[in-house]
Amino acid sequence: MRASDPQFKDMIDNAPCGYVTLQPNGRIEYVNLTFLEWSGHTAPQMIGTRFSDFLTMPGRIYYETHIAPLLRMQGSFDEFAIDVLTAAGTPLQMIANANERRDPEGRLLLIRLALIKATDRRRYEHELLAARELAIGAEKATQELLRLEHETSELREQFIAVLGHDLRNPLASISAGARILDRTVHSEKEHQIIAMMQTTVMRMASMIDNVLDFARGRLGGGITLERDARAPLEPALAQVVDELRLASPGRVIETEFAIHEPVNCDRIRIGQLLSNLLGNAVTHGATDKPIVVHAETRKGSFELWVANAGEAIPETVMEKLFEPFFRGKARASKQGLGLGLYIASQIAKAHGGALTVASNSAGTRFTFSMPLS
Hints:
Layout: H1 6-13, E1 18-22, E2 28-31, H2 33-39, H3 43-46, H4 57-74, E3 76-85, E4 91-102, E5 108-117, H5 118-184, H6 188-218, H7 234-247, E6 253-258, H8 267-284, E7 291-298, E8 301-308, H9 315-318, H10 340-350, E9 354-360, E10 363-371
Helix pairs in contact: 5-6, 6-7, 7-8, 8-10
């Protein structure tokens, strides 16, 4: 690329650095507008003159004794500092690099110099250092924020886990005391009060289980399983249904069980999943229609679904049903923590299965399915 080529002339003339082309005898053949503006010289003054004539005396000596001989020997010079004498007679510190061009026979054709002002170079280096320090400071600040956030999150989750664990003991005491009292009371009113206490304990225990599972999941442990294909699953499901019938007097819960093959699952976890789905159906379903629990094994899979009549779930709500702490539009007296469906979906996932929902004007059905193998 030569400055004499019209397509490159404007680009070279107005480049952000100075360009000077020297003939083999060291005289200037071309100088761009940028260098002329910096130095204050004109093109007619410089073209045809030796480049060293526009240097300060120390710069001239240095160029003629060091730079020029090295250029003739090795053909290039990566970087050197030199003082250019401006038209006003003041020295202008510059940093330059040089390379030469030869023909195929090795004859020298020209020497090209690219120059920048030393003040620009120093400013650029200072900006780089400042940007680097700023980036390092920002990275340290980000790391510190992440560390603090991690500590806060860990403390929060550990607090939830410890709180849930410590609540189990007093609940166990209340439940044991209620069972003892139930053996000694005689009136129907007293039996009803104790039954109400037991259902409250059961509801609180379910909420604590959900909180603990949520805390374990957030701390990285996830839902843990103890699978056992030998023990029958139907009694565990029937026990959950009986507990919910006791806790919801007046609600009809119908069951349809057809479990004819072993189900390799965690029976306690599946019971927890069913309890959460039944609790959701009791809360949101129509009170004058039965809730149906269906469980069966067929075609190499196990399927469990809970269906209830009532209003259809809106599409906007369906998208968030399985998110933690989402409670939709539950009645104020029936609202829980909003973890039931989330924990149920995590239990389904831990079993290699899935929890889905379908809802329309005829009713709502939550279905859990998992492969038997």
